[in-house]
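As the next step, I needed to go through one protein, both as residues and as discrete backbone shape codes, included below for the reader:
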Amino acid sequence: MKKLFLYAGLLALLVTAGCKSDGNEPIPEPKPKPTPGTTVDTTRHITPVVPVELKKAEKVARDNAFTFDLLRAVRKHSTDANVFISPLSVSMALNMTLNGAAGATADEMRTALRESGYSTADINAYSRELREALLRADPKTTIGIANAIWYLQGATVKAPFIEANRTYYDAEVQALDFSSPTAVGTINGWCARKTNNKIKEIVKQVDPTTFMYLINAVYFKGTWHYPFKKTFTTEADFHRADGSTQHAQMMRQAYSFNYAKDELGQYLEMNFGNDAFSMVVMLPDEGRTTRDMITAMNSNRWEATIKRMSPKAIALILPRFKAECDYQLQEGILPDLGMRLPFSNAANFSGITNAPLFISTIIHKTFIDVNEYGAEAAAVTINDMVGSSDPHQYKDFIVDRPFLFVIREKSTGVILFIGEIGEI
């Protein structure tokens, strides 16, 4: 029986940008709150260059439900301190595959993706609309969403499957001689090009029973709308999830951010570029944990939290952080969400080929880097500011312990990435 390999989210890269520096300047000891005369930006929103409106906007709530369910499943099966996933990438790779699924196999995939009730045609149309909208939402934010399918040279792949993925997912489809020594280089070369050379090797060798590789890659690079200054970054303690303490480089700034509070913790939103995309930091209160937040969060609660947010003067302290994660989603994670048949000999992918076929592996690989740097730092505008002379007006938001974060497109509410940072 032939195997289908899926690679989702080869790269999710976020480089948040601030002021450039030669890296050798002395770092003074700043105060966490601004001194008298410091300015605070009270501008809450700048309309994205291309506001995004989706015809099937109600599906976003389903997507976000999948996001939090997937995060819980990944957290359950991972012992790592940090978790980072792109639900957008996982759902896109699976929806491409759904074009070839039939019967109970397709039903289980829709259940796992929280897409029950939607036809494949509806899902395809929504996926194309969403992909195109995200790509044009903000010219100051770099986002790439690429898809590719390689199938065994000489094999028969059904034309409707190929056509659907080319039409709705802009997938590159190519027959490939998997026995050739150049096959691995072809696949890895595509990955390198689509991830800005951040991931150069995803396939070490081709399994002789492989029928198809289906790959989705997401690349994201955003620059802070309000930049950090490297001269304000200092070393401070970060308290890990396991109770130990480590030194971290803490970035500092004081501005007006969208903010909300509930019984679990605090929420702060930081904008990128022209404000189309943002990162929401979720900081549990003392005595609460990120696991409490993960357990409690769902699509409805998330939407209510975002709606409650309002501008507040904040003295923010946020660590630089990086995370690189690698998951095999077929090992407990997607089965926990109801997707089991596609990984078994009973799978029905008759829409791809008449030969028996099942999904062997779904690899989800991600990387994130949050810091002050970025080539677009000088382009960030901070002109619209008004004065504030009283440092006591600022509320501290000190991220010195485990936290969650979400990167989203604001006008639609679509979540691109979500993660938990337990150590720096």
